Amino acid sequence: MIDNRINIKHSMIRWAIERSGKEQGFFTKSFPKLSLWGKNVKPTLKQLQDFSKKATIPFGYLFLEEPLVETLPVPDYRTVDDKYIMSSPSPELIETICLMQRRQDWLRSYRIENGSQSLDFAASFSKSNDVEIAKNIRKTLGLDCSWSENCRNWSVALDELNRKIEDVGIMLIFDGIVKNNTKRKLLVEEFRGFVLYDEYAPLIFVNNSDAKSAQMFTIAHELAHLWLNAGGIFNLDRMQPGKGEIEIRCSNIAAEFLAPESEFHKLWKEKRYKFDSIAQSFKVSTIVCARRALDLGLISKEKFFSYYENSTKRLKDIKKSDKKVDFYKMQRYRIGRNLSVAIKNALADGSLLYRDAYNLTGLRGKTFDKYVKEFEPL
């Protein structure tokens, strides 16, 4: 009889469990002798394969001599209490960034092959002041200073901003899980978004687990990253920038883009502390409005944090009663308009195989066919 039991280091099993972010009890339900693996018990090949899937770790990693030190493939601007985050990134975050990089690489090649022009937004603005950059972002997107006045509310304004961003060729992705797996969530506590800079296929990723009320500031912040040619990941803990120069500048640019200082001061004289009323004028959420007041020294940090905590708690309570979003409609945001259109066209002209389209979208078979058939750019 062939012995298919495998020698494995117990330290690698422990590392895989810690890396997964799950308690050991989650695994022992399926593998009762897990605590003895690598000691006096050898798991079977099938058991190890099943364990690697549950731990969401590449099977080959289990046979390394020592745990792999995993690092983010992009600059990390995340801080908490003015200290850089040093903890290991989650498998969910690493996989998401790698998937976005693959999407970006494909779209870049596709656009170059089809004669697309460069989208180098940062070409002449890295040394400009923050107000000039905010103005140029509005100009590039085709928005004037009063662009949001005709929007019914900040939610409608957010949709309009998203459309304008995609109109200029930027990949805009919203997702809160990994590869349609609802059990693998992207935690807001770990990151709120990231930017992958590229001259032909710039990409903005928004953690869709975050409150909609905070997403407009996140997106404006990410636009600033593109204009400064500074790709990377950030968390904006309680809507506060990291301590580095890039993060501070990006937050200043975002604030000026959404609520120009001169206009904000005028409204503040009339509607001091009336965040709901001021926010209605700019069509931003009240949290963004309070954040701008903090930037301009009109309220204290203590008052802002108190307002932020109360507002986010109220919004979380509202979110619990939200209806489920249609699966195919959600894919429009998870894949993005620009990538979806390019994939659809590439399939039509025969330059992309269905196998590769499946890998780029995370959709397969009839599900993919239905998405492509029903896809309509918003």
Q: What would you say this structure looks like, in words?
A:
- By secondary structure, this protein is of the alpha+beta class.
- The protein has 3 domains: 10-63; 79-319, no CATH class; 327-374, no CATH class.
- The protein contains 16 helices and 8 strands.
- The strands form 3 sheets. Strands 3-7-6-8 form a 4-stranded mixed β-sheet, sandwiched between helices. Strands 1-2 form a two-stranded antiparallel ribbon. Strands 4-5 form a two-stranded antiparallel ribbon.
- Helix 7 crosses helix 8 (245-258) and helix 10 (275-282) packs across helix 11 (286-295).
- The longest helix is centred in the first third of the chain and has 23 residues, at 91-113.
- The protein is globular and about 80 Å long.
Radius of gyration: 23 Å
> Major sheet, described briefly?
4 strands, mixed
The number of distinct helices, counting runs of at least 4 residues, comes to 16
Record the strand order, biggest sheet: 3-7-6-8
Element order: H for helix, E for strand: HHHEEHHHEEEEEHEHHHHHHHHH
Silhouette: globular
Mean pLDDT: 88
In total, the number of strands is 8
Q: How many domains, as an integer?
A: 3
Provide the structure class. Answer: alpha+beta
End-to-end Cα distance: 61 Å
Amount of helix: 40-55%
Beta-strand residue fraction: 5-15%
Uncertain segments are none
